[in-house]
Write a structure and sequence with these properties.
Rossmann fold; four-stranded parallel beta sheet; 8 helices; 4 strands
């Protein structure tokens, strides 16, 4: 009987110690996303290690743009969003190029980036890697979200997945102007 109580207590302690990194990992795994493409760096190095320890395949590149293109092609091939992980500011911008191309080509892709604290970004005082990444990303992709609280990570990732796999189909047909459908 006491073993059961200890097990429950251990589960409660484990729940109390869950952080944002573990919530992202759990959300990725629950949605069948088991590969991350990225460039390790502060503040995401620990996340990459934790993801690997949890069974997620982490493929590292020398440049974020290459990681982003690998994620977009993985999305195209698997029909599930490819996940690109970057550091904030310049790393985010490098990954954003691939995300913009993925959006144009209708390849499902999600870009997850580190970021400065929201308050620092709002003050615009020139802090290290201060950048309003949300404002920059919005015109270049189907959807852009900022998650401020750990309890919103699951919903944020679910919204990102939904946006990545829905909407405009992957193929388009162009026809010359002035031609009717009945013209041959």
């Amino acid at each position: 009987m006491s073993a059961v109580v200890q097990s429950v207590d251990a589960n409660e302690a484990e729940r109390e110690q869950t952080d944002g990194f573990n919530l992202i990992i759990d959300a990725l795994k629950l949605n069948g996303l088991n590969t991350i493409y990225g460039v390790p760096g502060i503040p995401i190095t620990d996340f990459g290690r934790m993801a690997q320890a949890a069974g997620i395949r982490v493929i590292s590149f020398r440049h974020e743009q290459n990681a982003g293109y690998a994620a977009s092609i993985a999305g195209f091939l698997t029909k599930k969003p490819g996940v690109c992980l970057t550091v904030s500011a310049p790393g985010f911008l490098n990954g954003l190029t691939a995300l913009a191309h993925a959006t144009t080509n209708c390849f499902p892709m999600i870009l997850i980036s580190g970021s400065s604290e929201r308050e620092i970004v709002d003050l615009q005082q020139g802090d290290y890697e201060e950048m309003d990444q949300l404002a920059i990303a919005k015109p270049l992709c189907k959807a852009a979200f900022r998650v401020l609280h750990a309890q919103d990570i699951g919903i944020g990732l679910a919204r990102a997945i939904r946006a990545a796999v829905s909407g405009r189909p992957g193929r388009r047909l162009s026809r010359p102007a002035g031609k009717n459908c009945s013209d041959r």
